[in-house]
């Protein structure tokens, strides 16, 4: 019983230390790290949208067209594999969105490094990341609207989840980071 109490006390102390470390981080860097975390989790939201679009035309199978995102337990799409794609996933806007998302993930590496270097000028790299996030937001919201127009309200509850976890959360985090940038100058 004493070991169990020691474990609980150790967990409480550990959580308190994590809270102190998180509170000691500058608010600008906190918002930037939240945006980075959301951008990595956006991959899973994009796959939720792809599965929803494919399910709406009764086509199952893998939808993973990204090839270097970690913790992916879904097989990738082979280039020559015949599969019927939903018309929203065949538009030029969606293809631009996927290419931009791949390059956006690569852009996050210098953004991470700029956050780690003390007294580093983040204006240029932050502007690139914010602009890229805004274009991702517009393209993803447009694809969601297109799917809603094509299929009506058949999958609206699942689409609302994708909308809230994807573009809405992304827009809030971008606006918070942009507000911090403007207030700090």
TrEMBL record:
It comes from the Eukaryota. The chain crosses the membrane at residues 7-26, 32-49, 99-117, 123-150, 157-179. Keywords: Membrane, Transmembrane, Transmembrane helix. The keyword Transmembrane applies. The keyword Membrane applies. This is Uncharacterized protein, isoform A.
